[in-house]
Amino acid sequence: MVGVSEAPRSGLIAILRGITPDEVVAVGSALVEAGFHAIEVPLNSPDPYRSIELLATNFGRVCPVGAGTVLHPEEVERARSAGAEIIVSPDTHPEVIAATRALGMRSYPGVATATEAFGAIRAGARSLKLFPSTALGISGMRALSAVLPVGVELIPVGGVDESNLAEWRAAGAGGAGIGTSVYRPGDSAGEVRVKARRLSDIWASTL
């Protein structure tokens, strides 16, 4: 078994799919003010590396910034150059995990089975993106958590919203990736702030 240290706790991660550089600072400010713990810009967004750079410059000291939908090792280095500290992928790609670790960044590979989870752990990941979380559900996450090494956290992504966030946390999730429940393309910073505050309050009040 791969040795792992104390379990990380990622908290709430905002997934800003479709965000543009023109709006990212205002939206990022709203998320930070509302208490989100990290912000991810998927690479299939418009000009994603510029958005990552702007977020990292303005909020990187208080809120880690990540690149999402990272599929290739070369994207890891480019994201790091833009200021990203986190690399998030929809799949488990050992070379992406290795490249991320080599640059001192945190890797969040996507897993949906025990085989994928242990493959990601052996490659060096400690935070696993449970994706799509609806495939396993909360009971499935509990079952998977029971066999994972101490020091590995599961982050449900896909379908996490106000109606089930408390249940995911109570079941042991180390965090949650929140996409359309906190930001949809075209949302104003004010709209994001209201939704983010509700989600943050739920997370903070759940034991």
Automatic annotation (TrEMBL):
InterPro entries cross-referenced by the UniProt entry: Aldlse_KDPG_KHG, Aldolase_TIM, KDPG/KHG_AS_2
Pathway listed: Carbohydrate acid metabolism
Xref: SUPFAM superfamilies: Aldolase (SSF51569)
Keyword Metal-binding belongs to the record: no
Name of one Pfam family that matches: Aldolase
Protein's recorded name: 2-dehydro-3-deoxy-6-phosphogalactonate aldolase
Family from the record: Belongs to the KHG/KDPG aldolase family.
Subunit (UniProt): Homotrimer.
Lyase found in the keyword field: yes
Keywords from the UniProt entry: Carbohydrate metabolism, Lyase
NCBIfam families per UniProt: PRK09140.1
One term of GO molecular function: lyase activity
Stored CDD domains: KDPG_aldolase
Record field: transmembrane: none
Naturally occurring in which organism (per UniProt): Nocardia jinanensis
Domain of life: Bacteria
Species classification: Bacteria, Bacillati, Actinomycetota, Actinomycetes, Mycobacteriales
